[in-house]
Amino acid sequence: MDRINYRLGIDLGTNSLGWCLLKLNEKSIPEKILLAGARIFSDGRDPKSGSSLAEARRLNRGARRRRDRFLGRKGALMQKLVELGLMPKNKYERKKLEVLNPYELRAKAIENSLAPHELGRALYHLNQRRGFLSNRKTTTKEEGQKIKPDIDGLKEALDASPARTLGEYLWLRDKNKQRVRARIDEKLYPTRALYRDEFTQIRSCQLRHQKLTGDEWQALETIIFHQRDLKTPEPGRCQLEPNEYRARAALPSFQKFRIAQDITNLAWIDEKGGKHFLTAEQRKKLWNLLHKQKTVKFGKVRTTLELPEGVQFNLEDEKRKDLKGNVTAKLLSDKKYFGEKWFDFSDKIRDQIVEELLDIEDEKAVIQKAMNTWSVSEEQARNLASLLPEDFPKGYCRFGIAVLQKLVCCMRDDGLRYDEAVKKLGYHHSNNRPDELVEKLDYYGKMLPKAVAFGDPDEASPEKKFGKIGNPTVHVALNQLQKVVNDIVTTHGHPQEIVVELARNLKLSKKRKDDLEKEQRKNQKNNERIEGELKILCLENNGPNRLKYKLWEELSSDPNDRLCPFSGEKITPVNLFSPQIEIEHILPLSKTLDDSQNNKTLATREANHLKHDRGPFKAFGAGDTGYDYGDILDRAHQLPKRKFMRFLPEAMERFDDENQFLARHLNDTRYLSTVATEYLSHICRTVRVIPGVLTAMLRHKLGLNDILGERGIKDRNDHRHHAIDALVTALTDQGLLQRVSQLTGAGLLEPSEELSDPVKPRLKAPEVWAGFHKEAEEKINHIVVSHKPDHGIQGPLHEDTAYGIIQHPSSWEKENGYNVVRRKPSSDLSRNEIGAIRDPDLREKFMNFANTFENDKELKLALPDFAKNLGVLRVRVLKKEHPIIEIIHQSTATKPQSQKRNHKKGLAPGPVHHLEFWQNPDGALHQGVGRVSGSIFSRPIKMIRS
Known about the structure:
This protein is of the alpha+beta class. It has 39 helices and 21 strands. Helix 3 crosses helix 4 (about 115-130), helix 14 crosses helix 15 (about 380-385) and helix 21 (about 510-535) packs across helix 22. The longest helix is centred in the N-terminal third of the chain and has 31 residues, at about 55-85. About 30% of the residues are buried.
């Protein structure tokens, strides 16, 4: 196969991958589009909750394991009871013992002799109900606050009653026809300690009546009450020392590292726009302040550093009002825990204390450790034991403890930035390129060991053997990147260059995505408000008018103080939409190619003309235009912080040199871009990354939005737009950026469609090479989008909920199409579920209550108290499920066959169609999974059940 020199462009998103191959000439300049395509895949998250799909599988797997362990414990206990003669060997004889009341037997067992089988029945019942055991690592404060009143209430009721054990107390309730099963809000939530105490009293009494040795009693106690330790997930690898584990973010060492980072990066800006980093004395003052506080407002920072009240900091903006301090130190130095003694410990001891507070499961063990090792009072020890993991900062950092401590020393004592400290310590935090290229990409965990957690060499699957990235979106995206790139390399050989565009939300957490959606809803409401304002002014509601109005509101919170930042002339709603007021790029578009709203403000036509193609300082800093630069900075202070920074003297420094501009835009150092770049560098020496905002701007200027959309607007409903982005990505090199920059600076390309002058027609976008646009349109229109299947043959046979099937529906139920019913706690009902309550009287009562609330959130908060006062803990809720599968449960009651009653349950089918079992001629039984499309097995020997 003749080698083709080509450049591969990749548009990598949360659930999409666009790709494009450009043929290069002998000067490495693109001259032809070879191929383009798009791959669509799931992002590995639940579309409703945004949580990882692996989380749901993990929870279900945990439930199965807990049930398996429970059944295993029952079997082991029964086997031991039979062995000790406390249960009959015959299972039918054991079944007859079920008629004995276990609560009565447990009450009698602490003072009277029981027959061996009666004692066995009582002990077996203890195993069935062995009480709640608090685990500091898994119990949340919300859960604790919910069950603590019931735990305390049961203990108080026990103390007030004549009962000596939990079993005796429950027997008294049972005789009085009161509830005996544990329920929330009924003061019936026993702890494991109550059951252990009861077992001890039963053993003390029955020792003289039963032929059991001390070891045999101990064996029974171990089986009933043994609790396995939780398995703590292993953290990932340290980025600088890959053989070390990453440290928890809660550790004081990391808290100090984060503070040191902020202090070394912090600078204050004077009234003339000059930037000043902190002196050694100022760093020391700020360190002492942050080290003992949770957060410190920037106003307090100014006071501490003795700076003028008006100065701003480079880290300060609308969203960041403070510096984060040592959260862990602030918590544990409280007098309830360690007090000032906390600061007397060494760094090593402080880290150890936090590790143990997060790892020890039993409260008693924490209390003992705190009093004996940390030398605190009993009250402080109990307070420390009450702390839960959620009280501390969550997650892990990128470095191990040893590396953190070395970095802190360099940054705090020497005032070095992070990159300078890394260099001084002899590390290379960004140089991870391989020495040799490979034929194809292997599993990313094998090729990027620093990016994944430690694996198990004995495991067979690559994910378990080499480890994987915890973020499901990144994990899926890298696996799909491997498939697509390997297919391309197999057909066309290795690319000469690879350029990757990263979507901005690729590595967003669930919280960040929720924040982004909240921000989008806020912007939508703001647009609707502005639409009303434009209507009052008799103006068209379009993009340019909305943008002008938004920029006008940004000038000042007071409409009477909204001035042109440069000239100081007042801008009113009357002259805002006149030709006298123009939208101005703060930093010149021709040099920055930044066409975002962050780089735009309003200016009078005269000021805009004087400023021309220059930054604010270069245009007005010399004072030869009649405008005072100091006054301009004062007015710019009214603008959002991100815009004010563009008025400062050094704002253009990073853009003046075109190579510096390219380096800034073409080297995105965010997490996924770093991982993807390093991954692709195993098959190509030259890999570059560009941000999505740059691609969007170039796509518009090249006129490629017209291929799938109309009037230059990108059509996001067509998945082929990912291939267009990949095409633009592949085209993006220094030569193209220079041409676009020159054309924009000369006014031959307009900034954006929104700012088009209606008098001057939009000029045609530049051809990259002769016939480029026609060629691009032909290639894009012939793309067949590839979709990754959502799942393989794995999947649940049915949904989790088992429904009751309505045998005789009422006319109302028939009319609404309800066919199944389920029981649900009244406190968890949604507004729609309230309207589907089966009991008409209850439905009316709940609906009347719900109608008093306009807000669903308020209804959710008030519903538990309403249900409790009504005395209705659970209700039957109707539902429509089509299709529904009927499952008949055989009765297991110990009654004659004629009296046994089977019952039906309805299950909503899952993605798996059926199970298949077959038997080989040698008698070996096999099973498999089939789908709706048919069996996946070609030659079953003998079908047993389908």
